[in-house]
Design a protein that fits this description.
The protein has 135 residues and is mainly alpha-helical. It contains 6 helices and no strands. The model has no long low-confidence stretch (mean pLDDT 95).
Length: 135
């Protein structure tokens, strides 16, 4: 595997994009109440384990950004558009497929599939654009 130069500033910005997109996406302004209803998560359940949830979210954002930085580099993406394309295809081939498998196996509502997969789509598009444009 060839070494991949990972620049600190775009990496940190991409991690923050993932966290902020998720926070806004799953906020009362957008999809929180509908997500809670469809996922069967009560307000009380949301309050418990907040620190563990946030740490998991941040670690996941770090891992996703690290892997996406490699994909952007290997694809030779050097512009906003090509970076977003790398983000999209990583979302489609990996993230959406996992959500689709869960949706089909667990017989979850289709709207829940789109809420959960949509948050990752938006984040990966922006993250890929940031990582490519700043490389």
């Amino acid at each position: 595997m060839q070494p991949v130069p990972i620049h600190a500033l775009p990496f940190i910005v991409a991690v923050l994009v993932k966290v902020v997109v998720g926070a806004v996406w799953y906020s009362p302004m957008l999809f929180l109440k509908e997500w809670q209803r469809l996922a069967g998560v009560s307000d009380e359940a949301m309050k418990g384990g907040m620190a563990k949830g946030m740490m998991t979210w941040i670690i996941g954002a770090l891992l996703m950004t690290f892997v996406l930085a490699h994909a952007v580099f290997y694809a030779g993406a050097r512009s906003v558009g090509t970076g977003a394309a790398v983000g999209f295809f990583n979302w489609l081939g990996f993230v959406f497929v996992v959500h689709l498998d869960d949706w089909a196996a667990a017989k979850r509502p289709t709207k829940l599939l789109f809420i959960n997969a949509g948050a990752n789509l938006v984040a990966l598009l922006i993250m890929g654009a940031v990582l490519a444009a700043w490389s």
